[in-house]
Protein: Tripartite-type tricarboxylate transporter, receptor component TctC
Organism: Methylorubrum suomiense
Amino acid sequence: MKKALAFGFLAALTAVTARADTYPQRPITMVVPFAAGGPTDIVARIVAEPMSKALGQQVVIENVTGAGGTTGITRASQAAPDGYTIMMGHMGTHGAAPALFKGLKYDPATSFDPIGMAAGTPIVIVAKKAMAAPDLKSFVEAVKTGGASINQAHAGVGSVSHSTGVLFDSLIGAKPTLVVYRGTGPALNDLMAGQVDFMTDQIVNVATQITGGTIKAYAVATPERNPSLPDVPTTKEAGLPGYEVSAWNAVFAPKGLPEDVRKKLVAALDAALKDPNAKKRILELGGTVPKDGEAGPAALQKLVESEVARWTPVLRNAVDANP
Ligand code: MLT
């Protein structure tokens, strides 16, 4: 009997060790819940490359759009927790969505194994080049008096552009027409073409166009100016001190990863964020890389819990105050 038990234990141990040595054996899918070319996709592709190197298998981006990012995140949350499906979530899908998205099919704080923060992405108030207002104060007046004739782009209820946009509208007491896109990548194309008037978007998506002069930036919603956009004032400098908001993008896996697999994914993201090219790319687009204490799964879990707690009352009040 004892022999059989020992044998069984040995077999189980060999199987676990074998998996630890062999994961990953095939490409890994990283679900990006918004359209290609937008900020979440940009951050995902920046980190996917060095993660592929670290893991020895390709991390393949799959854009699964719709419903403010919740379609893609729901699908990824229901995938097998085997390390072959991960996702790039953010302050919208894993922070604001519970407040704004009715019937969410996942819980940001319990449906996932957090892998780690990928990039901080400050919010910029951007408008089409033809927007006449010369500064934020007159832009705010134009949006208020323009009412429904002003078109504001966003990427779906609960997305970053939607939640930070709703906050902006409520703060200034404006009711523009909200125009939904499958991501702020496509929204930016329309902004550049003058088909839509403005949006509040993540800096990594719009920094290049602002510098290139194809769209206008009224302010960055952070306490300090952003090094990639030195001439863009902060909201405080521009006369809207109450509007300070930053987003973030982070890697999650479905809940229940085997510990050895989870550790390999955490290590691969850590290596990616130490990759000089990846860091350079995130910084030159105005993003931030996690500082010590902000990286890793425990910090991300704490952030998700605090962001859901923070955004829920703020966004519910914003919607109630400005239905
Ligand atoms: C995107 O990648 O399109 C954005 O993250 C969408 C959003 O949350 O605004």
User: Anything to note?
Assistant: The chain has eleven helices and nine strands. The beta strands are 28-32, 59-63, 85-90, 112-128, 151-154, 177-180, 198-202, 215-220, 246-254. The radius of gyration is 21 Å. Residues 221 and 243 are 6 Å apart (CA to CA).
